Amino acid sequence: MMPHEQKTIYDLRGLKCPLPVLKTRKRMESLAPGALIEIETTDPLAVIDIPHFCNEDGHRLEEATPVAGGHRFLIRKKA
């Protein structure tokens, strides 16, 4: 991530599988190619589901970070 880059922040805490992936996919439809989205989730399965979603849809998982009660993911939309 470049210092001047904007990112969309999407709070998906409290949602259970498959909602974090479904809502992320839907939200990313409105983003420009190459845009960044940061999602935060408390679903323990997200550590499996989000990287799989990125791989399947061609997005790049820039970062996956454990946070209190869950995980934060930084995803770059495919160009």
TrEMBL record:
Q: Where are the transmembrane segments?
A: none
| CDD domains linked | SirA_YedF_YeeD
Tell me where in this chain the UPF0033 domain is found.
10-77
Q: InterPro entries given for it?
A: TusA-like, TusA-like_sf
Q: Which residues form a coiled coil?
A: none
Q: What PANTHER family does the record tag this protein with?
A: SULFUR CARRIER PROTEIN YEDF-RELATED
Q: What is this protein called?
A: UPF0033 domain-containing protein
